[in-house]
């Protein structure tokens, strides 16, 4: 098999499985593992994939620091936030993950809506300053500054005592085979714990996060109640999620 053919096969496997295991692929093709690893190094240099120990993952979006992300609010994020806010009912307990997309949920909530908002993000809590009818529960812990959320044992214990009606989960990447993922192990554990303590979990899926994978899995695709996606996302991008029988809510 020629080098170009191997690389095309590697990309096909990434799209299908969300990962490439170097040893398994070498065994399947009857090649040395060094040959596959060399292909992966070259493809990583060409920005076609992300090298990890033992193989490769699809590229995930490179995120700037939180303050830079906070200053950018796209029309897509506003539409997703407005749709999610419309799902919140009076009297509910809603857990809001950190992130700039989830901040748009708060900005679209009626300021007189009687609701309990739980969050481990001080920036999300700050957005609720003028929501006079909302009770706000801020979870503390070790601050993960990249996402401005609390992590660690203190946060885990506090979250365990709460049962939210709905959790709006923030992620850095979404893949039909690899599920929902983020870049930090501790943050992934907290997100997974919140989902386990919530009746329903929804993800606001901006276009650049689809069909990508980050190193730390949060949940498999079938573990959430639905994805909220923009109406202008091409159908071919959504087809793998429909095939996986994931509920898609269009904003």
TrEMBL record:
DNA-binding among keywords: yes
InterPro entries per record: Carb_Metab_HTH_regulators, DeoR-like_C, DeoR_HTH, NagB/RpiA_transferase-like, Tscrpt_reg_HTH_DeoR_CS, WH_DNA-bd_sf
Domain of life: Bacteria
Sequence ranges assigned to domain HTH deoR-type in this UniProt record: 3-58
SUPFAM superfamilies: NagB/RpiA/CoA transferase-like, Winged helix' DNA-binding domain
Pfam family, one: HTH_DeoR
Family annotation (SMART domains): DeoRC, HTH_DEOR
Assigned keywords, A-Z: DNA-binding, Repressor, Transcription, Transcription regulation
GO molecular function, one term: DNA-binding transcription factor activity
Record protein name field: Transcriptional regulator, DeoR family
Organism, as annotated: Rhizobium lusitanum
